[in-house]
Amino acid sequence: MSEDQGYDGTEVASDGDDRLSAFWQAARGHVGFGKMETIVGGAPLDVVPPPSFSYGEGTEADAAVAEILAGSRTTGSSPRTDYDELPRVGDLAIVLDSAGEPRALIRTTDVADTGDTVTETYELVYPTTGPTPAVD
């Protein structure tokens, strides 16, 4: 899956999108990236938003986002041919709704390559309830 395609191959917003950057700035504390790392030269991952995608279009994408935010959707599957590189445990991604708005930051917890299909298990990282953990 390339960075500008969804699991179903739909084109999604680029990493340069201001909405993705703003969402990433709000979410990055939940994965342990803080302001000091940027000032002293932290890893590029703390500055550049992770790849983004949507689960389809229209009501399909919105329903998937609602399920992810509710915690009832924690896996996704797609054909092996959709991937340039397989996802890895610890990978982050931003899930978009049907309007292309960033709604959820997820982290891969397991990847199963069953030949023709890749199944990725993930956890919701942001938004969550409660305060952002201190990292600085």
CATH architecture: Roll
Widest beta sheet: strand line-up: 1-3-4-5-2
Outline = globular
H/E order of the elements?
HHEHEEEE
Global Rg: 15 Å
Q: CATH first level: which class?
A: Alpha Beta
Domain unit count: 1
Indicate the low-confidence ranges by residue numbers: 1-16, 131-136
Task: Indicate the percent of residues in helices.
Answer: 10-25%
Q: Tell me the strand percentage band.
A: 25-35%
Q: In the CATH hierarchy, what is the superfamily?
A: Sulfate adenylyltransferase
InterPro entries: PUA-like_sf
Topology diagram in text:
Blueprint: H1 18-27, H2 35-39, E1 52-53, H3 58-70, E2 75-79, E3 92-96, E4 102-113, E5 117-126
Parallel strand pairs: 1-3
Antiparallel strand pairs: 2-5, 3-4, 4-5
Can you give a write-up of this model?
Helices cover 21% and strands 25% of the residues. With 136 residues, the protein is α+β, with helices and mostly antiparallel strands. The model is unreliable at 1-16 and 131-136 (pLDDT under 50). A five-stranded mixed sheet has the order 1-3-4-5-2, sandwiched between helices. It is globular, with a radius of gyration of 15 Å.
Relevant terms:
single chain; 136 residues; alpha+beta; Sulfate adenylyltransferase; 3 helices; 21% helix; 25% strand; globular; disordered N terminus; PUA-like_sf
What's a concise summary of this model?
With 136 residues, this protein is an alpha+beta fold. The chain contains three helices and five strands, in the order ααβαββββ.
